[in-house]
Design a protein that fits this description.
The strands form two sheets. Strands 2, 4, 5, 6, 9, 10 and 11 form a seven-stranded mixed beta sheet that branches. It is built from no helices and eleven strands. The radius of gyration is 13 Å and the shape is globular. A hairpin with a 4-residue loop joins β7 and β8. The protein is mainly beta and 126 residues long.
Length: 126
């Protein structure tokens, strides 16, 4: 059983930056594909970014491409989401997720993940 704990959310002005972290425990982190999702009030949870367990070919939603960067440190069992040039429409609860997959595999669907964190709130003011 994998436990995921997100941190780093908060309130930021438009144009600002935040770095989210997701610490994993209870599994072989280095063999899990990781993803970030977000859910705004009244909306469905949506894909933000994903990275394979061997750190190849990160993939982004079009809405965040060029502004967000996903990375991982397998030695620290942690995945990060660096968010720059934040916009009010980025406001949401951000979740990290994990799934055991082969190398070079990216998962973008919510149903493709086995483990989820509790989420961290990101609020971007205009």
């Amino acid at each position: 059983q994998v436990q995921l704990v997100e941190s780093g959310g908060g309130l930021v002005q438009a144009g600002g930056s935040l770095r989210l972290s997701c610490a994993a425990s209870g599994g072989t982190f280095s063999m899990y594909g990781m993803g970030w999702f977000r859910q705004a009030p009244g909306k469905e949870r949506e894909f933000v970014a994903a990275i394979s367990w061997n750190d190849e070919s990160p993939y982004y939603a079009d809405s965040v491409k060029g502004r967000f960067t996903i990375s991982r440190d397998n030695a620290k069992n942690t995945v990060y989401l660096q968010m720059n040039s934040l916009k009010p429409e980025d406001t949401a609860v951000y979740y990290c997720a994990a799934v055991g997959v082969p190398p070079n595999t990216i998962v973008v669907e919510t149903y493709g993940y086995d483990y989820w964190g509790q989420g961290t709130q990101v609020t971007v003011s205009s």
